[in-house]
Amino acid sequence: MSLITAARIARRELRGGVRGFRIFLACLALGVAAIAAVGSVREGIDAGLAREGAALLGGDAEMEFTYRFASQEERAWMEDTAASVSEVVDFRSMAVVEGDTPARALTQVKAVDPAYPLIGTVRLAPDLSLATALAGADGTPGAVMERVLIDRLGLAVGERFRLGTQAFILSAAIEHEPDGAADGFRLGPRTLLRTDSLAESGLLAPGTLYSTKYRLDLPEGTNLAEVASMARNRFETTGMRWTDARNGAPGISEFVDRLSAFLILVGLSGLAVGGIGVSAAVRAYLGDKTATIATLRTLGADRATVFAVYFIQIGVLSLLGIGIGLIIGAGAPLAFGSLIQSRLPIPAEFTIYPSPLVEAALYGMLTALIFTLWPLARTEQIRPATLFRDAITGLHGLPRARYLFATLIGLAALVWLAAWFSGSARLTLWTAGGLCGALLALSLAAFAVRRAARAAKPRAQGRPALRWALAAISGSGEGAGAVVLSLGLGLSVLAAVGQIDGNLRRAISGNLPDIAPSYFFVDIQKDQMAGFSQRLADDPAVSRVESAPMLRGIITQINGRPAREIAGDHWVLQGDRGVTYSAKRPENAKLTAGKWWPDDYDGPPLVSFAAEEAAEMGLNLGDTLTVNILGRDITAELASFREVDFSTAGMGFILSMNPAALSAAPHSFIATVYAEPQAEAAILRDLAGRYPNITAIRVRDAIDRVAEVLSGLAAATALGASAALATGFLVLIGAAAAAVTARTYEAALLKTLGATRRRILLSFALRSALLGAAAGIVALAAGIAGGWAVSHYILETGFSVIWPSALAIVTGGILATTLAGLCFAWGPLSARPARVLRARE
């Protein structure tokens, strides 16, 4: 074989243009563009976070402590290390506006010192300096609020409101908070004030749930890595958490990375859909080249040369499609950068980034190889004499082993790259397995549809339109396989996303009203518990009250070694966790191993741990945990494991200790109240009026806030899935266009035999609708199976079929194929029978 000769022949054939490869190019370009665009947006956000890391964080570095202020030693180290230090206190509280009917709303309070903000500026409306706004007037301290909270409370600038027992004057509305994005998820809008103005509020009493953050403005040229290492080595065992400008908003950065990884996997699903169109286009192209291939073989070209000729052609066209996709994917974020930036709460820097383009190009090349190698390899099975008599699309059987092996190698490489780039091998394998399963199910469905159509044809006597439709579907020339595969896979991706989103929303909100408490009350002081409990006990509308001591702690060591060395990056170790104590085993605590301590136990600390999380972390009875609580290390032995159900929205503590281990530490109590909806307002009014320091969190409001975040995720995933569906529709159009010649001949025959245009059109519509229904039903089954697997094994939520979404998928399949079929029906219907039949003689 001569590659030079093959390349010369391929070049000459490519001079004829890309007619017949438009769908090929569109499918490949759309899939690559989707992946490149998502990756480019991810890189732009990462670049923005890196550039504005210090501004987002509010300093070059931050040291955070859980429910305590920094010690003298810690504060002294900060003063020695940094040029300036700013202290921020963050907690939740209830903002109250007095009146005949007091207005109350949950707010996230940020109490700051005069040095805040070290970097950036707080913009207010009206335009005041922060110092002026927080100074207040007439001996009453000032505060500023986000506008949504002002509207919720019905406040106006200059009016008063209360936090705890302290009155404040609303001085302005917050227009921009420079470090707001780094604060993460908040249940309530922001209120910003001076820390010293809270001295008489009763909100920062011992045991109150708050966190302190110390922002450091480091000298220019400071090595952040070295300073971080020094701080961790010296203070991490005290529960200190370090963040610096290298990743000023770690929560946002991690969220963006995970979401983009998921969207890229959805994009790969769309690329797989496009692969079917690529394969179909190659088959059709080689079928049209039968005479050319026959001539080459007759003139002495061997199988390898013929394969190389068309491999080069398809390779060049693949590179063209990938190039178009890269241009679109790189250009879309640039073109819509301002619109994307306006929707983001964080900075982004959109430009051309090589990394996501390389990633998308690799995906595109591997997809093109996997889906074109098979039809290209089939050319080697054909002898010259056969090529003169039959088309290549009539071949059956598998290609030679080396091509099968190369296809498998390409598939493995694609999966490995996806796992590497996404950083989630588990999700990648689930996606790949789901796609392979869906393709297998759709292939079997296409075969079953043809067999069913063949079996049903005799029963359609007297209904000629239906009989013609069944006859066309049962044959090999109608493209039933391409239609069911392409549209079905696109619908499968969309169906799975719809089921996952619906079940996630149902898990958060749909199932909770029957079992969830009305309110969480936090920061209840020990001496307030008697009156608090009595008010609720006297209310017949209250069905249940649960309360427990509440502390927060960070697990720093397991068996004397750093916790992350033992349990990795488990979520329990990511930040502080709720800790309680109890002498008696709670009635709803079901032990799975070990035993509870005696009521009067006063020996070394013991701890009962959540069973499921303990298994994930590799913990065993007898292991020791070191928990830092309020800067003090408590080492306790694991005495038991118990079931903890977080799905009820009630109280669930990962760690519960014996009372002697914790009761002496400053702490408050938490309570959940289950009440009838009509009694909720009176309960809140009475308890908030009697105990101003208590914070009430309405569960329904919290659920709505989470659902609001989920709506954005659902929109993003649906957009990614729509790319797969659009690709499937392109393939569907290609299949319909490829069948025009066959339908023209069929329509000519039927007209000659006396069929009316209306009946022929009905036949075309019926076959399209039947194929669409088959694709939709199989896609529905595949989507439900995929949604169940992700919900059950990855999200670990319950699952039930979301029927409105499911029925929309089937309806969409029918409409898509019917519309595509009818769009290409007018040409065959308008063709003159004599001219068509004469051309086929």
From TrEMBL:
Superkingdom of source: Bacteria
Secretion signal span: none
PANTHER family: INNER MEMBRANE PROTEIN (PTHR30287:SF1), MEMBRANE COMPONENT OF PREDICTED ABC SUPERFAMILY METABOLITE UPTAKE TRANSPORTER (PTHR30287)
Domain ABC3 transporter permease C-terminal span(s) in chain numbering: 265-378, 723-827
Protein localization: Cell membrane
UniProt protein name: FtsX-like permease family protein
Membrane topology classification: Multi-pass membrane protein
UniProt keyword list: Cell membrane, Membrane, Transmembrane, Transmembrane helix
Membrane-spanning parts: 21-41, 262-286, 307-340, 360-377, 403-421, 427-449, 470-497, 713-740, 761-790, 802-829
Subcellular location, principal: membrane
